[in-house]
């Protein structure tokens, strides 16, 4: 395994301008013929032609029609005497789709053919310069048995199709846009499509298609609607039109991630595509909308302008996540629904990216090195990358950001570029802006790993009527980066009176007041900002809307947090104040070791939120949900997962007991009548009703109540949609109610033929709060269930990731059995699918923070995996970093 370094980047020695591919598709042995037009890159000295190839059998290599001698060098095919003039290269090889369990390259799933080429899967199809800066125009001829594979798809436009002898048929596709090999795709199978024609603003007609297996067609309506909404939004917000006559989406059940943005032929995990009210939850509907949008938006940010090398991955991923987050907010509607989106995104960032940024795999948004690029499709590249793009927008304003993006496309359409090119375009379009004047320092967001800590302290001078806010920052050391420079941190803020009134801001030295909200830019290790004409001691509301991905210590008292919770005009900070009130109590209990006793002030504040006549149900649900156990673990030096779990469970029980009447009222008040729609208002109500129900079932034993468990069971049976049904089932199962097992059996019986719902059934059981080791025992048992398999990533994730990633108290056991189980599953998965194995391996990223006895037991399990001789590069890299 070699370490690839960013600083070693070299332009390719050859360009490939056109590719003609012919596929004779056969599951056991597919024949691939590739005819390519090559030319030497005049900027690079003479040398051999080296093509990437993996798990291929080469049959023929011709240059300008003549056989040419070649050799194999590891995974490269080398032609030592390639011509200096432009030449035609013809290759023939075979590959074995049926045997390809990695789901990378060409593989079969459910009897159909699919491809996944990002990042380096194309080299498992044919020999190629499989790197994103080599962009070619593709023509693809597919030949296959017509009865088994009636649908033959590839990128671009269909040129012709027809019959062949022996029951075979063909289809020829042409994609006019030059593209890197990672955007190539083909699909062949027995599929059906939902179709819709649309006309874009330019007056062009386009055909939209969503292909799925027979029987799934009625579950594609939401995806199609999401696609149409995405097309409309990208034209309206960024002036970016659909550029192909045909845009296709295809669903597949065996897939390593959510979806893939292949040019004009997006391939989707069915879990990110199929939805019906009976089988998908509100969260599923939301996820599908955002993934359909994300892949569609890649057509400009990723495909039209792509990455020069994989170190620039966040150039397309961070930007495209930012775009899909903006889209989801715009789709949600009003200010409150937008804030709910933002809260969910931030909660996700903090629970997944913050731990990554302080663990063994911490890496900058633009990494400096990797062994296996597939290990770097991380939440840092995606979600932190998106926060970095958001900070550009915060610093130059919305219009300035749109102008910057316009310049980016004017300069770079059709090119493979770097994060520096993106930064330059946004800055150049906004001369004199808060970004442009400090661009070099801002770009440290790309080079420095780790989450910066910001401390804020305010001092009010009553005599001078001034308020001095002192902000300081420091970024912790991360692997390979002991010392950090200060970051450019936009701090959106406002000041409130203790009565909750927004105060007008007037910075010392400025001629006039600047309204009630302002973005301070922290760029020094420490800076003070003086506000004048401040009539009373203010409560600062800082980092509004989470204006930078940092950990903020604002030192606010409970009383001040309560003011923000009740009155802040920024809904994000209202939520944040509530979370801080909860976190402070949980952390105090953990530090003292004393039992948690929730006080009346806290419970009263939570009750007030729950009863609030104006607040949306969705917001209430978020505000009343306690911080997750993983997020809490990030706040303490030494992590005892059992202690954290005990405190959270106790807090939940106290909230369930103290607010029982309010939960009943909330449940009754948030019933959604009429047909199901996944809109923000109804889904917010369902979320709050489900939380209330779970609290009522949890409280039932203590209250000697049999009514609510019974009602939950009844609701589970009668539910008109999956959100209500799964919510009721979860309430019973998570509270260990007597009716839980019979409800679980019934659920399986009802949905045993729908794999995506069976995934939910496994996932729910993997996440049951641990009680006397029963959850762990159940998970082990479920690995032997007839429906369980490691071969399908969704199924493996549903059970194993639920336990190992999302159920710390069941996983981290004093007897180390959880770690032994983890090691076994990582090794078993690695033999089938290294990408999924490596993701599971990463649950040990933070093992060094664990308390005794977990720490030493975890180390032993990691060493057991490391001792395996033939680990994949994927798992080897993760494990080596954990041990470094
Ligand atoms: N670009 C793909 C992810 C590819 C992952 C390769 N291991 C999906 C996306 O981000 O849209
Ligand atoms: Zn993406």
From TrEMBL:
Gene3D superfamilies: 2.60.40.1840, 3.30.2010.30, Neutral Protease Domain 2, Peptidase M1, alanyl aminopeptidase, C-terminal domain, tricorn interacting facor f3 domain. GO terms for molecular function: alanyl aminopeptidase activity. It catalyses: Release of an N-terminal amino acid, Xaa-|-Yaa- from a peptide, amide or arylamide. Xaa is preferably Ala, but may be most amino acids including Pro (slow action). When a terminal hydrophobic residue is followed by a prolyl residue, the two may be released as an intact Xaa-Pro dipeptide. Pfam families: DUF3458 (PF11940), DUF3458_C (PF17432), Peptidase_M1 (PF01433), Peptidase_M1_N (PF17900). Residues 223-430 form the Peptidase M1 membrane alanine aminopeptidase domain. Residues 450-553 form the Peptidase M1 alanyl aminopeptidase Ig-like fold domain. InterPro entries: Aminopeptidase_N-like_N, Aminopeptidase_N-like_N_sf, PepN_Ig-like_sf, Peptidase_M1, Peptidase_M1_dom, Peptidase_M1_pepN, Peptidase_M1_pepN_C, Peptidase_M1_pepN_C_sf. Residues 558-884 form the Peptidase M1 alanyl aminopeptidase C-terminal domain. Residues 20-183 form the Aminopeptidase N-like N-terminal domain. It comes from the Bacteria. Its EC number is 3.4.11.2. Keywords: Aminopeptidase, Hydrolase, Metal-binding, Metalloprotease, Protease, Zinc. Its cofactor is Zn(2+). NCBIfam families: pepN_proteo. Belongs to the peptidase M1 family. This is Aminopeptidase N. It comes from Roseateles oligotrophus. The gene is pepN.
């Amino acid at each position: 395994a070699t370490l690839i370094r960013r600083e070693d980047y070299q332009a390719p020695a050859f360009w490939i301008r056109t590719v003609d591919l012919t596929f004779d598709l056969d599951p056991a042995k597919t024949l691939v013929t590739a005819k390519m037009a090559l030319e030497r890159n005049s900027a690079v000295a003479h040398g051999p032609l080296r093509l990437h190839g993996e798990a291929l059998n080469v049959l023929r290599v011709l240059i300008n029609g003549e056989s040419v001698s070649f050799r194999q060098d590891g995974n490269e095919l080398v032609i030592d005497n390639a011509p200096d003039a432009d030449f035609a290269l013809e290759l023939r090889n075979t590959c074995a789709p049926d045997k390809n369990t990695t789901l990378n390259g060409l593989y079969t799933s459910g009897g159909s053919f699919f491809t996944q080429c990002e990042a380096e899967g194309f080299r498992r199809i044919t020999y190629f310069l499989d790197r994103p800066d080599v962009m070619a125009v593709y023509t693809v001829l597919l030949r296959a048995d017509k009865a088994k594979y009636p649908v033959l798809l590839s990128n671009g436009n269909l040129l012709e199709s027809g019959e062949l002898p022996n029951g075979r048929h063909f289809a020829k596709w042409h994609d006019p846009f030059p593209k890197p090999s990672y955007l190539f795709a083909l699909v062949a199978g027995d599929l059906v499509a939902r179709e819709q024609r649309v006309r874009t603003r330019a007056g062009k007609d386009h055909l939209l298609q969503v292909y799925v297996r027979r029987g799934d067609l009625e579950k594609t309506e939401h995806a199609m609607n999401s696609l149409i909404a995405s097309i409309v939004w990208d034209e309206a917000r960024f002036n970016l039109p659909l550029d192909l006559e045909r845009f296709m989406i295809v669903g597949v059940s065996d897939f390593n991630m959510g979806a893939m943005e292949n040019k004009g032929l997006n391939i989707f995990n069915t879990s990110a595509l199929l939805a019906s009210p009976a089988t998908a939850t509100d969260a599923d509907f939301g996820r599908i909308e955002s993934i359909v949008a994300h892949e569609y938006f890649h057509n400009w940010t990723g495909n039209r302008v792509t990455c020069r090398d994989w170190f620039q991955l966040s150039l397309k991923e961070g930007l495209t996540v930012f775009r899909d987050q903006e889209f989801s907010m715009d789709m949600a509607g009003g200010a409150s629904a937008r804030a709910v989106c933002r809260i969910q995104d931030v909660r996700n960032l903090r629970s997944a990216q913050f731990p990554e940024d302080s663990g063994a795999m911490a890496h900058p948004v633009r990494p400096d090195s990797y062994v296996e690029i597939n290990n770097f499709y991380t939440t840092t590249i995606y979600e932190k990358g998106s926060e970095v793009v958001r900070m550009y927008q915060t610093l130059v304003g919305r219009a300035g950001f749109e102008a910057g993006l316009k310049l980016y496309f004017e300069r770079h359409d059709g090119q493979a570029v770097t994060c520096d090119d993106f930064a330059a375009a946004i800055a150049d379009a906004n001369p004199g802006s808060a970004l442009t004047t400090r661009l070099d320092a801002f770009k440290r967001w790309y080079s420095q790993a780790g989450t910066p800590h910001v401390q804020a302290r305010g001092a009010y001078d009553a005599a001078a009527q001034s308020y001095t806010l002192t902000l300081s920052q420091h970024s912790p050391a991360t692997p390979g980066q002991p010392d950090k420079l200060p970051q450019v941190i936009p701090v959106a803020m406002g000041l409130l009176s203790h009565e909750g009134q927004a105060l007008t801001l007037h910075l010392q030295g400025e001629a006039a007041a600047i309204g009630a909200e302002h973005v301070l830019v922290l760029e020094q290790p420490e800076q003070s900002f003086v506000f004048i004409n401040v009539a009373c001691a203010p409560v600062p509301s800082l980092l509004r809307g989470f204006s930078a991905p940092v950990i903020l210590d604002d030192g606010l008292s409970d009383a001040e947090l309560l003011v923000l919770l009740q009155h802040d005009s920024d809904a994000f900070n209202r939520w944040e104040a509530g979370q801080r009130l909860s976190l402070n109590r949980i952390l105090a209990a953990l530090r003292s070791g004393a039992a948690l006793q929730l006080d009346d002030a806290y419970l009263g504040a939570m009750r007030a939120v729950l009863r609030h006549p104006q607040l949306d149900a969705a917001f209430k649900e978020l505000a009343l949900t306690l911080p997750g156990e993983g997020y809490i673990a990030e706040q303490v030096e030494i992590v005892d997962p059992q202690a954290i779990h005990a405190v959270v469970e106790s807090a939940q029980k106290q909230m369930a007991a103290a607010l029982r009447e309010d939960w009943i009222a909330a449940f009754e008040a948030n019933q959604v009548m009429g047909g199901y729609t996944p809109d923000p208002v109804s889904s917010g109500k369902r979320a709050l009703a489900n939380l209330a129900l779970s609290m009522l079932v949890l409280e039932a034993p203590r209250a000697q109540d049999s009514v609510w468990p019974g009602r939950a069971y009844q609701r589970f049976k009668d539910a008109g949609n999956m959100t209500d049904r799964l919510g009721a089932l979860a309430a019973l199962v998570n509270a260990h109610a007597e009716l839980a097992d019979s409800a679980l059996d019934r659920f399986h019986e009802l949905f045993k033929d729908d794999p995506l719902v069976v995934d939910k059934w496994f996932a729910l059981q993997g996440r049951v709060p641990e009680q006397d080791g029963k959850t762990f025992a159940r998970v082990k048992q479920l690995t032997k269930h007839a429906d369980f398999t490691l071969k399908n990533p969704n199924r493996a994730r549903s059970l194993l990731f639920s336990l190992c990633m999302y159920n710390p108290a069941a996983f981290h056991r004093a007897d180390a059995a959880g770690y032994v189980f983890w090691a076994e599953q990582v090794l078993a998965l690695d033999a089938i699918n290294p990408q999924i194995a490596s993701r599971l391996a990463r649950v040990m990223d933070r093992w060094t923070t664990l308390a005794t006895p977990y720490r030493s037991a975890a180390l032993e399990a990691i060493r057991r995996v490391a001792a395996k001789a033939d680990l994949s590069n994927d798992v080897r890299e993760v494990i080596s970093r954990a041990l470094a």
